[in-house]
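Hello Y.,

Per our agreement to keep a running log of every chain we model this quarter, I'm adding this entry. I've kept the format consistent with earlier entries: sequence first, then predicted structure.
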Amino acid sequence: MSGLPFTLIGAAANQSELLDIWDRATVEAKAIIAVLFIFSIAAWFVMMSKVVQMRKARKLNHFFGEEFTAQKSVLEMFDRKLHVEGCPLYAVYQMGCTQLDARLRGPSGERAKQEISLKNMEHIKRAIENVVAKESLKLESGLIILAIAVSGAPFLGLLGTVWGVMSTFAGIAKAGTATMAVMAPGVSAALLTTVAGLLVAIPSMFGYNWLVHNLRAFTVELDNYAQELVSKMETEFLKDE
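Predicted structure for the entry above:
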């Protein structure tokens, strides 16, 4: 308890220093910090939303995979009209079964055929591959914002610092004096933009790398499932030629 007052005093001193540095910053530096703040909000929003999306997709993929493995026929869940919103594996399964079902039905609309040709199977494969690509792109959406934050934020911060230092030296040249007391406030205010840029870039970098790693795992899972689905369809319905 005895250290608490000193902690509060130190925090208040740091806050007053930051406010003083902010007041000394140029208009350009404040504008750059405002832009970086917007980037930070966007980056954190993307990271949080993608984490929620991927956790949901992973959970749904797990349960759907168990149901898919347990079914006796590849069209069993399709005939039950099972619907799993937000599940990438379900989207692949639904497209594949829809294409297969359309080729098994006769002119009357009833599922009269028991086999399909190799040509029809190739059409189904392409449809499944298209869905895999679309689901991968859906999971990737928004990552460009993190990539921009990682690569662009430090440069914006550096731009603000260089601009601020340039303004400080221009002021010193006009005043004709170059003491530490004159230079330090301007330089410290200029460095504030670099700090802001790094505060945006560092969390975005960790978040981007984590999301890319998980995205690769999802893509591999989708590809493996698509191959398994096609294999089961060929085993059950492909005509021997």
